[in-house]
Structures are given as C-alpha cells and as structure tokens.
Amino acid sequence: MHLKFPSPGGVDFKVHQTLKDGVVKINTFMKEILTVINGIPIRRNFVENLPYNPHLKVLLREKRKARILGEVIFWKKVRAKKFHTIDFDRQRIIGNYIVDFYIKTLGLIIEIDGSSHDEKEIYDGIRQEYLESLGLLVFRISDFDVRNNLSVVMRELEDFIVLHYGTTPSSKI
Q1: CA distance 99 to 64
Q2: Rounded distance, CA 143 to CA 147, Å?
Q3: Whether the predicted model's global pTM rises above the 0.85 cut
Q4: Are residues 33 and 83 in the same domain?
Q5: pLDDT at residue 66, rounded to an integer
Q6: Please, which domain of life does this record's source organism belong to (predicted)?
Q7: Which of 29, 126, 168, 170 sits 20 to 30 Å CA-CA off 57?
Q8: Are residues 77 and 158 both part of a single domain?
Q9: If you average pLDDT over every residue of the chain, what do you get?
Q10: Per the domain annotation, does 98 fall within a domain?
Q11: Which backbone phi and psi does 149 adopt, to 5 degrees?
C-alpha cells in the first residue's frame, strides 16, 4: 500500500514505497517535511552546533520566572506542539543571547518586542545580525500585537514559515 500526500495543486505523490520484503522505505522528501501549513509542506531546517554560553543559565532561570504577559500568551498558544505540531523552545540560550522562542527543526527564532527606544533598536539589530550569521531566521512581533491581536500574529507566523520554509512536492519528484 502506498500512502499519498496531497500537494497544494491537488496532485498526490507517494510518501513511501513497500519493498519486496515488506520493508517500508520513506521517501526522502517526506523525511525533510516537518508539517503542512495551509496545504504547503514545510521543510525542516536544522541549524547544528549553535554556540552556547553556560554563564547565562542563571539569567535564563530569572527570565523564565519573570513571565512577561505577551510571552505567556504566546507560549500558551504554541506549547505542547499546539501550533501545527511544531515544537517550540521557550527562553533558549544561543551564543551570548537568550531568545524568547526557538524552533529547532526550522532554525527559527521568534522575538516578542516590548516598547522600543533607540538604544534597544540598535542592540536588537546587532543581535539579529549575529543570529542570522549563524544561519537562523528571526521573526519579530510586538508585545502589543500578541496581547491584542493574537490571531493576526499567528497568521503572520504561518505566512512567514510558508514563505521561508515552504516547498511543493513537485519540486522534489
């Protein structure tokens, strides 16, 4: 029996094949797929060997206890793979920084920005440039939007993921 996976264009393709001895061989394309968002397969993008500063562990624990409202609301929406079965990490150390949320299987950081001032924007720019130099992508959202427009924020996150990680089955056949 062959499982079929619907492509956005409505054409099915095999995700595995059964060999003569009954062993199932998974299509390489499907091993790369993390989830499907709005009919678009989302390709995994592991970024390995990220730098880690163990001296930030104490600060990390303090930050987790602080429980900023926007972060709490967002976390409740995505924890336990509630968002398209994607696994999110909260408060992750990468290099000399602690990021708000991290999706390891995509190499994607989600940052919730509070009120900004010039120094903070400069710092955030330097920080984002460093994180992107590691091969990571950063999706920024405002604390205000998370607290007041969560459904819009989640659609924007879906759109960002589809734009940067989406693929079509026909491109791999």
Answers
A1: 11
A2: 6
A3: no
A4: no
A5: 87
A6: Bacteria
A7: 126
A8: yes
A9: 85
A10: yes
A11: -140, 50
